[in-house]
Design brief:
Largest sheet: 6 strands, mixed
Order of helices and strands: HEHEHEEEHEHEEHHEHHHHHHHHHHH
Low-confidence stretches: 14-20, 263-296
Radius of gyration: 26 Å
Strand content: 5-15%
Helix content: 40-55%
Distance between the termini: 96 Å
Structural class: alpha/beta
Mean pLDDT: 81
Number of helices: 18
């Protein structure tokens, strides 16, 4: 009898020990959205990276649900399946690669069929990252992880006259890790490549056995910063108190990758480098040798290419609104939306005509006045543009986008104090407005003041912003 009890207790102890030391269940939802009809090109890196991340997480013991090019219904269904799997004490991870947008200081992930024409549509069609993390927590996940590659400049924000403002910080539950591919309020350009830098660095780090998840993400952050020489700085938020690794095993022998030192005002030539000689390749030998205080030669950026008539005629979205207008000449919304598409594509003449019709059908349409102001400013019809912006602000005094548009008009008119005032008022309402920040920097420079901080900050948030302004006929060489 005593032997039986000993054997029974030994077996029970072994069973309880096994339960106590069992690794927590790990669940992941991986989404790669590449084919947005509103975007000019498919982002092949998004689906390729999502596939690679899904494969790696499966090797690491995650039960993975992978979705590609998901519509709103598809994302809702995928999230519902994901939530249903989460068990108390488990690890839940979301990887999203596609377009994201911020509204009211919150980040929304966008399905491929998002119909966004005004800011209110973001809440309707987007998926709030804080809501997703909160649901993971409610379902009992002990560790929540969100890896988000969505800080791309996208076509949606321009429809309500706002330059891309990147992603907003996420207020997260305890024991959560969040990593964005870029800094808060900044965007990166879409790359025409098979794989993206963020996912490449992430895969390298999460494959390291024994490295804690938080350290792996910090190493990813450092890797991206190093590869881009500080131009892209991923944002990391951690409230993690539970240690776990993507790959179990002995910690790697090399020390964690150090965080690169960032230069807050990067320049092509570091201050520690020797002064170039007069025979430098950047200065013809026949030119006079510049003195140390000479102003560098300013090379204006190239303006974006305007589309051909055939490209406009073959755009399916423009064709659809043209069809609607053909059926109903009083369809104000169709005129307005087609005008926005023309303006975004830099086809300014037909854009103005469509905004004319939208205003004729509703003389109280502040957004149409604002869009016509911006479009007229780009074409140089400045006095009429100024009247449109003033009218938009009479109808909607708190319209930050109209302030931004009027800032452009005043900048082009050489009314620098007025431009500084408009851009500053716009930034007071939306501190992440890249166009207002860059425009104010140019206006400060035009007024003989130092606009370097604004210009550098804007470029760090969107490296294409100078080219965008060049398309409006404004550049740093001559504001």
């Amino acid at each position: 009898m005593r032997l039986f009890l000993v054997l029974l207790l030994t077996a029970l102890f072994a069973a309880f020990s096994s339960v106590a030391t069992a690794a927590p269940a790990k669940f992941a939802l991986v989404i790669g959205n590449a084919k947005y009809p509103d975007n000019d090109v498919a982002m092949n890196d998004a689906t390729n990276d999502a596939q690679d991340i899904a494969d790696e997480l499966r090797r690491d013991g995650f039960e993975v649900d992978r979705g590609m090019n998901l519509t709103g219904d598809g994302m809702r269904q995928a999230l519902a399946r994901f939530y249903a799997k989460i068990q108390p004490g488990s690890i839940a991870l979301l990887f999203f690669d596609g377009f994201g947008i911020q509204s009211a200081r919150q980040t929304y992930l966008l399905p491929v069929d998002a119909q966004i024409w005004m800011e209110a549509d973001v809440i309707r069609d987007g998926f709030n990252i804080e809501t997703i993390l909160g649901e993971m927590n409610t379902r009992g996940a002990s560790v929540k992880v969100a890896l988000i590659e969505a800080a791309r400049r996208n076509p949606f924000e321009r429809r309500f006259r706002r330059y891309s403002a990147g992603l907003a910080p996420a207020v997260t539950p305890n024991n959560t890790l969040v990593l964005y591919s870029s800094a808060l309020g900044s965007v990166i350009g879409s790359v025409r490549a098979d794989h993206g830098l963020f996912a490449t660095e992430l895969l390298r780090e999460i494959r390291a056995p024994g490295t804690s998840a938080e350290q792996a993400l910090r190493n990813t952050q450092a890797g991206v910063i190093s590869a881009t020489r500080g131009e892209q700085v991923p944002w990391l938020s951690s409230s993690l108190t539970t240690e776990f690794s993507f790959v179990e095993g002995l910690p790697p022998s090399p020390s964690p990758r150090p965080m690169p030192t960032l230069n807050p005002t990067p320049s092509p030539t570091p201050t520690s480098s020797p002064t170039p000689t007069p025979t430098s390749t950047s200065t013809p030998t026949s030119s006079p040798t510049p003195s140390p205080t000479s102003t560098p030669i300013c090379v204006p950026p190239a303006a974006p290419r305007s589309p051909s008539a055939d490209e406009l005629a073959n755009d399916p979205r423009i064709r659809e609104y043209t069809r609607r207008i053909g059926q109903d000449r009083s369809d104000r919304v169709a005129y307005y939306k087609r005008g926005q598409l023309y303006a975004i594509k830099r086809a300014y003449a037909p854009a103005v005509q469509d905004f004319d019709q939208a205003i004729r059908l509703n003389v109280q349409d502040a957004e149409a006045y604002n869009n016509r102001c911006w479009t007229r400013a780009a074409t140089g019809d400045l006095l009429n543009a100024l009247r449109d912006c003033d009218r938009a602000l009479q109808l909607k005094p708190d319209n930050a986008d109209a302030l931004d548009s009027r800032g452009l008009v005043n900048l082009k008119l050489g009314r620098y104090p007025e431009a500084i005032s408009d851009y500053s008022a716009s930034l007071a309402k939306n501190s992440h407005s890249v166009s207002s920040m860059f425009g104010r920097g140019l206006a400060l420079k035009g007024a003989g003041r130092d606009g370097t901080a604004d210009l550098d900050q804007a470029r760090s948030m969107d490296h294409t912003i100078a080219s965008e302004f060049a398309g409006y006929g404004v550049n740093e060489c001559k504001p």
